[in-house]
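User: Before I run my own analysis I want an independent prediction to cross-check against. Here's the chain; please return only the structure tokens and, at the end, one sentence I can use as a sanity check.
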Amino acid sequence: QVQVVESGGGLVQAGGSLRLSCLASGSAFSLGAMEWHREVPGKPRELVAGIRTTGNTNYADSVKGRFTISRDTAKNTVYLQMNSLKIDDTAVYYCAAAIRLQASRTWNVFWGRGTQVTVSP
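Assistant: Structure tokens:
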């Protein structure tokens, strides 16, 4: 079985920083692209940042220049460094990982349960 687990959320003042981590664990799987999404009650979940196995990245316009996504391939971990946080960044942040189980030819998206980020005035 494969699990995707986020960590690193918390409460921070506006202008501060947080680093989120997402670990994909299990056995006999291949890991593809990984993404961070966020969700606020009453709004659709939105893509924050993504990183491919090539290292190519993409960001939502609202976080460009403030957030940085990176990955440690050896550790099956993706990070989201969040700087200059704003109140509007308050959300539950979810990690999504493209995973192919060894016994399968297809890729599927595995989601974590999310980690709360709260930015205070």
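Sanity check: The mean pLDDT is 96.
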